[in-house]
Amino acid sequence: MSFIDRLDAIDRRWIFAMMACAVAIPIIVIGMTGVRFPEVPGPTSTAAFEAIEALPDGAKVLFSFDFDPASAGELQPMANAFMRHLGQKKAKVYCQTLWAPAPPLIEDTLKKCLLARNPDLVYGVDYLNLGYQAGNEGVMKVITTDYKQSFPTDAKGTRTSEIPMMQGIENTSSFDLIVVVSAGYPGSKEWVQYVVSPTLGKERPIQLVAGVTGVSAPQLVPYFPVQMKGMLAAIKGAAEYEFMVNEVIEAANPGRPLPPAFMEAQRRMAPQLFGHLLMVGLIIVGNTIFFLKRRQSRRGGTMGAAA
Amino acid sequence: MNQKQTWTVIFVVAAALLTIRSFTGPGMAKVYVEDTRVSLKQSGEKEVDGVMKPVYEAVAPGTDGAIEWTAQSQVPPRVYYAAEAADPSQTAIHLSASRTIGVWVAALLTLFIFSFLYRDNPFYKFAEATIVGVSAAYWMVVGFWDTLMPKLFGSLVPAIVTANFMPGLEGKSDYWILVPAALGIMLLCRLNRGLAAVSVIPLAFIVGTTSGLKFVSYVESDLLAQTASTMKSLLVAAPAIGDQPSTGFSMELSIKQALLFIGVVSGLVYFFFSVEHKGVVGKTARVGVWYLMITFGAAFGFTVMGRIALFAARCEFLFDDWLWLIDPTQNRVVVETAVASVNALVGAMASSPWMPALSALGC
């Protein structure tokens, strides 16, 4: 058996082992040294950053956590960065979710990213957790006309009509911006279809920025920049946005060190680099083997025909 | 060595390494919590929908007539180390057995799932069945408390639901809810072979309403809005910079718009099968194929990125939260501990009587 044949018949578990090393070794090295890769923000991430940066103090922002713990590895860094940026902008944050497993993620994000740096914020006045509501796009259709009908109570069971922050909130048009971090259905696509698109061409179209998984990013790119003001695509988008948010927060709080927990997305770019290099290498090797074997078989076929 | 022996060796080695890791240095996979005593006392009553309801306020722990409980919040190990260093007899911050077991369970289930990459095995089956069972139970509980209780029972018997289960719920009767309730029950008729035909009616309702909703939204957001974005001038004006008005056209944006236009037209031609793909049509369709291939490549690249991100997150959990090999969030300050240990070792060597002899030997 030649070397090419042996490579062609390689056990797929060797590929898994190589990928495990390509991802695990950079994590250990980065975890021990604290080194991080430089980020150059792309247009979609920059647009998302600028959309939030343009908000006035006290702007009302609806933040929908439409993902579950299974995709938190990719999306939680985005949610963290969005929440920290909104806290920095002193926005009034209204958290909600259309995914049943998400309520603990909202609690965790509020605690770590908003309240840890702004302990004076008051629940119901500065931030609000409206919890989960079943109904997928049905909920979206209802909140475009009457928000309190879909969310009669907050996550703690308090009537929304009695909460100070909810005074003046009629429907989705009452918010200055909608931020959606989504993993699938219902997610950013449905928000564009049912909430944003009906307001296009109107006097005050709804502004939406989204953070999405790598799997769903390609089908959402066409919505940028008309139907979606900004988009964080996969962990790369999260790292770019996190980098910009960290710069703003560091500039606004000189002398106050940035917790390393808020460099989560940038840390995860090193395993991305080596994982992708391995994939590119494997594709090149696979194609080389394919063409070499095809040439071999053609030669064999020609020789056979001549014989 | 057969499969059974291989697995036995792997497990014995892993167990030995974990045991050594658990009892060296600061250990591993420990979760600490801080106890906080919460104390509430009734301060009065307020009227809600004609019903007087008690109002509570926070009071000092130990106050007569107060309702008290202990709330636990997770703290990083470094907070526990600092508290122990300041007062070794403190009990407010302590190890949480249940949460520590939780980290171990999460780590082992992660490894069980990863073991499928080697081959199908009972550990993988166990983890898979656990996830399916836990998910089903979670959805059942969420479905009951977030849908059935507030929407169905809250509309049929609002007074009972508001008084006993959900005090914040608006207490209004709405018997129209019986229609979706009946449709829901009809859907469950699928479970009975004799009544299975009944389930077609709610299914038809679901398909009809969903397609109606989707049709309008797709036309609005994906057909009209996307067509409008495509049908723009190929010469794009340069964006205005600050107060300066736009001057001339932008080469970069114009090329992007032209590429977008070519991609849309050639992609549509590729899917137009009423004309044979020959000549100009064939060449345009060929360009469309290239666009499609680039799109698939980008989608594959994004998918790989997503999967690696998820794998990296699990690896970080195993190395950081479970094994305590790395500390990227500086939750345990083990780096400082390690540096301090190395410094202490270097100091001890420097002051040892062997040092002059080692220096003479060039060490």
Task: Please give a structural write-up.
The complex is a heterodimer of chains A (about 300) and B (about 375). With about 300 residues, chain A is α/β, with parallel strands linked by helices. Chain A folds into two domains: about 5-35 and about 270-305; about 45-265, Rossmann fold. Helices cover about 50% and strands about 10% of the residues of chain A. Chain A is built from twelve helices and six strands. In chain A, helix 2 (about 10-35) runs antiparallel to helix 12, helix 4 crosses helix 5 (about 105-115) and helix 4 runs parallel beside helix 10 (about 235-250). The longest helix of chain A has about 40 residues, at about 270-305. Chain A is elongated. Chain B is of the alpha+beta class and about 375 residues long. In chain B, helix 3 crosses helix 4, helix 4 packs across helix 5 (about 160-165) and helix 8 (about 250-270) crosses helix 9. In chain B, strands 1, 2, 3 and 4 form a four-stranded antiparallel beta sheet that branches. Among the domains of chain B are: about 175-230, no CATH class; about 245-325, no CATH class; about 335-363. In chain B, a hairpin with a 2-residue loop joins strand 1 and strand 2. The interface between A and B is large, with 61 and 53 residues.
Summarize the structure.
The complex is a heterodimer of chains A (307) and B (363). By secondary structure, chain A is an alpha/beta fold. Chain A has 12 helices and 6 strands.
Layout: helices, strands, pairs:
The complex is a heterodimer of chains A (307) and B (363).
Chain A: H1 3-8, H2 12-33, H3 43-53, E1 60-66, H4 72-88, E2 92-97, H5 103-115, E3 127-132, H6 137-143, H7 147-150, E4 177-182, H8 188-196, E5 208-212, H9 217-220, E6 230-233, H10 234-252, H11 264-267, H12 269-306
Parallel strand pairs in A: 1-2, 1-4, 2-3, 4-5, 5-6
Helix pairs in contact in A: 2-12, 3-10, 4-5, 4-10
Chain B: H1 3-22, E1 32-48, E2 51-58, E3 67-75, H2 77-86, E4 93-95, H3 97-114, H4 122-156, H5 158-164, H6 178-188, H7 200-230, H8 251-270, H9 279-322, H10 334-350, H11 355-360
Antiparallel strand pairs in B: 1-2, 1-3, 1-4
